Amino acid sequence: MDHDVEKAGDHAHLTNSSIHSFSWENVTVTVKDRQSKQPIDILSNVTGTIKAGEMLALMGPSGSGKTTLLNVLAHREATAGAKVSHTLSINGTPTKLRNFQKFSSYVEQEDALVGSLTVRETMYFAAQLSLPGSVSKAERMERINSLIAAFGLQGQANTLIGTPIRKGVSGGQKRRVSVASQLITSPKILFLDEPTSGLDSAASYEVMNFVKCIAKQYKLLVIASIHQPSTTTFELFDKLLLLSRGKVAYNGAVSNIQEYFTSLGFPMPLYTNPAEFCIQLVNTDFATTQTTAVAQLSAIQDSHLTSPSHINILSEIEALRANPPTDSSTDSSPMQGPNPLLIPLTLIHRSFIKSHRDFIAYGIRVAMYVCLAILMGTVWLRLAPTQSNINAFTNSIFFGSAFMSFMAVAYIPAYLEDLSLYTKERQNGLYGPTAFLIGNFIIGIPYLIIIAILFSVVTYWLSNFRPAADGFWIFTMWLFLDLLAAESLVVLLSSLIPIFVIALAATAFANGLWMAVNGFMVQPETLNVFWRYVFHYIDYQGYVFRGMMVNEFGSRTYDCGEGCHCMYKSALEDQCKIDGKAVLSSYGYNTGSVGKYVGYMLVITVGLRLLGWVVLYLRKR
User: Fold this and answer.
1) 517 Cβ neighbours under 8 A, 6+ residues apart
2) For a tag on the chain, would you pick the N or C end, based on fewer CB atoms within 10 A?
3) How far apart are CA 569 and CA 584, in angstroms?
4) CATH topology for 2-103+187-322?
5) What does the domain layout of the chain look like in residue ranges?
6) Is the pTM of this model over 0.85?
7) Which Gene Ontology terms of cellular component type are present (predicted)?
């Protein structure tokens, strides 16, 4: 095995010389039953330990608590609303989250990868976000190449991970990329949640064999939840912690499983996968006689509490607490991170690559906005500057600004993909919400400018808005500010409710609300007091509508037509014309407030982004 690791590449950067052991005592997770409101233990007094160079398997039937235990051990939220009690120790000394995240890494069950990046680019950005500046570029590339080779991904190094409309690597290869991208961060403790999910037996063995070799050679501590591995894969693990109904049924060496259960009166049949045997033995879900099955399980769990392996674990933990290793320090030895000022630049770089490859993120949106522009330009086609078209101009301004904002819902899928990746990387301690939102905000600006210009080029001249260069660019500016605020609203609501259908519904409702109270359908002075003072003054669509109205009517005149019956009274009535300012007056607008409107738009946009930051800061998972 070690020979294979050497052949795959040099992984000396993974060497662990500071973490000798990781132990946990009396891990108990309690939640309230939804119906009876009585407390229920998801986990009950789980104790264990793992030493450097070992690999521990967490196994059990569905609902046994193995993923919950993995989250607790990784200093993550166990489950929503749960009460957790435990003692987690490194080298016999209790550890805290701030330090723990610096020398541990967690591979999620669901792959959270950027589909529009290649395998090599995924590894590159993992290195950029985790490795200190002292690691040279050559060394980074050496680590990347060696891990790609070790995980058998040389042929896919320049292949995209894959998006809904662009096929990429297979599901099994994605899994290997997820594991490899965490190993590049040089963790001392590696947590794997179902690392073989989606892999066939051969690929599962190869992935876990490599992890085993790395753990053994470089003294890493590996804890993995795993569901019914093949015999060859299962035998790679040094220890097994078997759970059922939140309690431990076995905690000891994998090599002692057959002897231990035989001593309890449960011999393992010949030619049986030990992993399947263990799970079937403690699974009561499909038992024909529940009472008998539960009684048998209770007997196995009680026997564990008096077993030699459990007594040895307690003795090891007590010895470590009394005499911690003198050649280790969890405070001075954790991994150094990159320069925090450079992290937003790395995220911007990654987002730029994603944005110009991901057709859904901006390509479809550009196409949607161009189609909307053509629709508007051909419906409100070549409007003459006459009083009969004043309502048409006003309707066009409302329609364009409102639906430009509404169509920002197309950004939700791309943002939720970014949010999923951010959540994983934040929980691994790579960066926080500030860097994420700065990168997200900056990368969107050039695309929104492009969209605003394309829309204006088509719509402005086809509809025959005020024919002046400054009018065109002011119109474009308002569209850009509209899109910027609309995208900020998407970020806030999608961060608050990161479920696509709900985020879509919430964003659509919010845009409908802004349309109703923006001042076009009902003038602000006649709006219900509640809607006016609670929503109208924070309605960014309202300020866009005002700004566009001032741009169109603030310095343009309109012919009254035959008979000179002018709809709006102005100083130009004797010339059979209407001063556009008279139209603005009917809405309560004036031409001297444009700068103020722009300021309000910027304040609203920043406010929405800050609220998004607060949501992400308070959200732990």
Assistant:
1) 527, 531, 532, 535, 536, 539, 542
2) C
3) 12
4) Rossmann fold (3.40.50)
5) 2-103+187-322, 115-184, 343-618
6) no
7) membrane
